[in-house]
Specification:
It is a single chain. By secondary structure, the chain is mostly helical. It contains 9 helices and no strands. The chain has helices spanning 3-14, 18-25, 29-37, 44-53, 58-62, 64-73, 80-98, 102-116, 128-132. Helix 1 (3-14) crosses helix 3 (29-37) and helix 2 (18-25) crosses helix 4. Mean pLDDT is 81; it is low at 72-78 and 129-134.
């Protein structure tokens, strides 16, 4: 895995500078620069801090380059505007989730799970009129 590439891609998605990431993660700017340039490999602890600062899971951070390539090779070009809104939505979800107590967080997870079981709310759902569009 190329930690530097994944970090640079994820940081660019978050639209923050190396200095901003370092501040959010509580690590030195030079450390972020060295990770991105490949001069240093991040410790597991720092990688978790960086993932948290970017509002990503460690797995998402580990796979940032693969996700980008899948977007390029998949359905078509990446819709950068849609990706930006998706990031904003994810940040808002995380912000709202963090305002809940433990019980509220569990109820939120239950409700999201219920929504994923309803086909019209799933990401793979296509309306009939969309099938006829060219």
């Amino acid at each position: 895995m190329d930690y530097g590439k994944n970090l640079k891609i994820a940081r660019s998605w978050a639209e923050i500078t190396q200095a901003e990431l370092a501040q959010k993660a509580g690590i030195a700017v030079i450390t972020v620069r060295q990770y991105e340039s490949g001069k240093r490999k991040p410790s597991a602890k720092n990688w978790r801090l960086i993932a948290n600062a970017l509002h990503l899971t460690v797995e998402e951070l580990d796979n940032a380059e693969d996700m980008l390539l899948r977007g390029i090779e998949g359905i078509g070009e990446i819709d950068l505007e849609a990706a930006k809104y998706a990031r904003e939505d994810k940040r808002e979800l995380l912000r709202l989730y963090s305002l809940l107590n433990y019980r509220g967080q569990q109820v939120a997870i239950d409700r999201l799970q219920e929504l994923t079981e309803i086909s019209r709310y799933r990401a793979d759902y296509v309306q009939n009129d969309e099938l006829t569009k060219e």
